[in-house]
Amino acid sequence: MDLSLSIVSFPIDEQTASDMAQLLEHLPSENRTVLHPSLWRADESRGFAVIAYTAEDELIGFAAAADMVGLHHYEWSLFVHPDYRRLSLGTALADGVAHALAQRQAESELAAFVNNSDIAAFMESLGFRPDFKEILLSAEPLPSSSLPEEFQVVPYAGEAEELTELLATAFDDSILPILEHNMEAPEREIWLFKKGGQPLATATLLTEEDALWVTAFAVHPDQQGKGYGKLFLKWCRELAFKRNLEKVLLDVETENDALHVYEKSGFHRLQTISYWKRETA
């Protein structure tokens, strides 16, 4: 079969993005997240797709890679139409990703796939090893209710020093480039959960299709165990309800102690995403 592979940078043209979306139309929405569909056409997005067409102009597979926070660190995944998976097309797409990453002088990469044994064998055949896993969690939006009087949830309004201290204490300094990106990206909303004017927790929210994503969620370590995280997550679910969204999503590493907080806050597990790193000599 004659196939043509090409590399296109984000934002992708409307027709190609439509072909990609059509290829994924029967894939559960939560399985599409690793392919970054919200970034394909976004003006400020950094990334690319490797696309495979037949001679009849039918798109039968693609890989999508995104520089999520502008640090030359790319996360990528790929999808091949089930009827064409015996053609080693996945390997060709992965080779295309490696070529494009080299062209862009990427500093690091991670491949992300829904966890299953077939994918594991494929990634190992490409010379990748497992790095870590994340659990994708979902909760339904909730009708609005009032926070207790002493608490407020307010949009970020320039409290850079307080926000930086909160996140660096909850995580470590590696979170700071992500914070900088969240501050600059217009589609990302930073919110602060306060008591008496003092920030206790923060989250960055992002709307993708019918879902509200909760990212960079942190409760100051000195304030953990007091139910503030549950209150804040409840507020996020209520915000999704106000915006007529269908679900609230977040992901967390399997070893993260916060997993039980999310589950006690009404989030349930959808799937596990495995991240793979290329073996180095």
TrEMBL record:
Domain of life of the organism encoding this protein: Bacteria
Coiled coil, from the record: none
InterPro entries recorded: Acyl_CoA_acyltransferase, GNAT_dom, YpeA/RimI_acetyltransf
Keyword Acyltransferase: yes
Matches recorded under Pfam families: Acetyltransf_1
N-acetyltransferase domain: residues covered: 10-143, 151-281
Transmembrane segments: none
SUPFAM superfamilies on file: Acyl-CoA N-acyltransferases (Nat) (SSF55729)
Keyword annotations: Acyltransferase, Transferase
Listed name of the protein: GNAT family N-acetyltransferase
